[in-house]
Design brief:
With 155 residues, the chain is α+β, with helices and mostly antiparallel strands. Helix content is 19%, strand content 47%. The protein is globular and about 35 Å long.
Length: 155
């Protein structure tokens, strides 16, 4: 079947947009499942830092901090990661570097452990002072490599 292109967009551009929409929907669905699974437990309040901004590579994701109000101290985080086709990212090596861009320093990197397909958990990230922090996420899966970042404020 042939479809006429009357929008002025190339077919490949529309296909890229459609794939991006599917990828975003997969991330939101995975994050919703993650939040729903912890809402009834004794995990306490959590803060959705939101969509990880892709700096490079084929990966997308969201991140949730283990506290309802990011404060100075040690924190855990859960990442929901998908590959370039929107499928849960399996078997990746994931490292997070907490960094304060205004000060040019941060905390030691921590490794995240896969707890389920596409779900990665880390504990004891040191956010040792108030201010704007970035969680710089480095992902390696097979030959693919990517960098993502979340920015938020610690009080």
């Amino acid at each position: 079947m042939t479809i006429a292109n009357t929008s002025g967009c190339s077919t490949s551009r529309r296909a890229d947009r459609a794939r991006a929409g599917l990828r975003g929907a997969a991330i939101l669905a995975a994050l919703a499942c993650s939040l729903a699974s912890t809402a009834c437990g004794d995990d306490g309040d959590r803060t959705a830092l939101g969509v990880l901004e892709a700096q490079s590579g084929p990966f997308d994701g969201d991140i949730v901090l283990d506290s309802d109000s990011p404060a100075v101290g040690e924190h855990g985080a859960e990442l929901v990661l998908v590959d370039g086709t929107g499928n849960p990212l399996r078997g990746a090596a994931v490292e997070i570097v907490p960094f304060m861009p205004a000060h040019g320093h941060g905390s030691p990197k921590v490794e995240a452990t896969e707890t389920a397909p596409g779900h990665y958990l880390t504990e004891k990230m040191s956010l040792f002072m108030p201010g704007v922090w970035e969680l710089r996420v480095h992902v390696v899966e097979g030959e693919a490599e990517g960098r993502l970042v979340a920015t938020f404020e610690v009080r």
